[in-house]
Amino acid sequence: MSRLTDNSITIYEALLNIQNGKYVMPAFQRQFVWNMEQIEKLWDSILLDYPIATFLFWHIDDTNVSWDTYFCSFLSDVDFDSRKSADSVNYELTSVDLKKTDTAILDGQQRLTSLFLSLFGEAKIRPSYARKQTGPKIITKLLVELNRNKISTDEEEYNSKKYDISFSDKIGKISPTQFDIKNILNEKFQAESTRGNAIEDAITNVPSDSKDYARNILQTLHKKIFSDKLVRYTEISDMKQDDALEMFVRFNNGGKALRKSEISMSILEAYWPSAKTEFGRILTDSYAGFGSDFIIRTAFMLYGDVVKSNINKSVAASLKNDWSSFKIALLHLEEVLKDLKIDVNHFSGSWNVLLPIIYYIYYNPNYKNNTGSIRAYLLRAIFFTYFQSGTTGKLQQMKTNINSFDNEITIEMLDQMSELRVTDGKIDDILNSEKGSRVAGEVLYYLSLEWLNKTYKYEQDHLHPESRFSSAKPPSVSVEDWAKWRSNRNRLPNLHLLEGRSNGSKSDMRLIDYYSDMNDDQRERFVDEALIPRDVSFEIENFDKFYEARKEVLAEKIRTLLG
Prior knowledge:
The chain is an alpha+beta fold. The chain contains 23 helices and 14 strands. The strands form three sheets. It has a seven-stranded mixed β-sheet.
């Protein structure tokens, strides 16, 4: 059970702890993203005596961090572009000496980095003509104007700065009434015996009507940095890395919830700075729309533990060093699915089902000899909604099962898994799936692969129109049978795929009329594509015979698809 304690220290103490290596950041922290205006407003708030919110610290020691728990040091040098936004920077990983480092910052990185940068670090601006981050940079200073007469603030503007605090790149042209905030660290400001004279020297060039204003700023600045305990923090002890990650996600949302995969990407980039660029080269064409989550989860599948899903040095190194083989496996996946008449982009929103196939392809060079079993697995997982819940556990189980069958997916392996074994009950569940459901849509899609035109958009359509079951029942049909037919009208045996424009023209047309309007070739094609038995009546009075006959045909086709 974690323990929480509340404490407070001065800004100066906090920044010394950063400088001395006592404070670090977990590797899953985000990049520094504040711009110069946010830093300026932070100092404005401090001088206005506003609270700067609480911080969340994680006490670390040899009981709650392991060899693969990595940290990052705080930035002391940040480049900003001409619009005053920070350049994205990949933090350097660091190993920690737990004799001097005992605190990781879970919440407050942006504020502490901003304060540290202002007093102990260095900010630089890339001018607009230096488009590349490697171009020339201009050193800036954070200045506060001491002459009240020079300050022009809009009192009506919401959230505007009340003090004139700003970064300036005109280092050689600093006004004599501007004060470099870093100078407050000079020893003459530190000692009480010399502070008064230091302040008077600093305001020498300030007009007499602004001296009290200037004097108050410098006195307040010293007090807020060295005396007032503004850094109020909650420290959590006895907490493991996974719990720290969870807590980080909850507290560092910044208005937008962070997913674990986003944090995993941050950690991965710490080990492999070009990871995002390399991912971008894959996530195009057939894999457009998959996203970096897909690659990260695949990496866990191939090199790590899918359930824990923790990026560590081993997983990151394996992905980086084996990147060529990783990309080849994805290429081979696309080829295998193409041979099965399936487009890989069909899974852009449901790619977990592909991961066991990638694992099989990656570790078994003879995968091409077994495409039938690959299809059987894929369609069983889809039709039986295998990954509807407990996804990571099931992926890990698939890894174990594939390994136990000599790195192969086989029908025997699938039949030993209760959730992927074909049974009469599961076939009935599929046949009872209704229009609009994902199962009905997927089953119709795979039943129709032989004739689907990939350039057309298809829709689920009733064979016997739904509207007919809202009308009066045929005289020859009993009330009980009509109620049963109505309950079956939306189920799979009364559904087929129809190209969108054709569906619009068919509308509520009776099946017998729709069929009668076709020529002989169209009728043959329709019956074949819709998998309708040739000796069945299309009249509504014979719906039950039509339904049961087509149900039997679909059941046989589905069993064949499922191996």
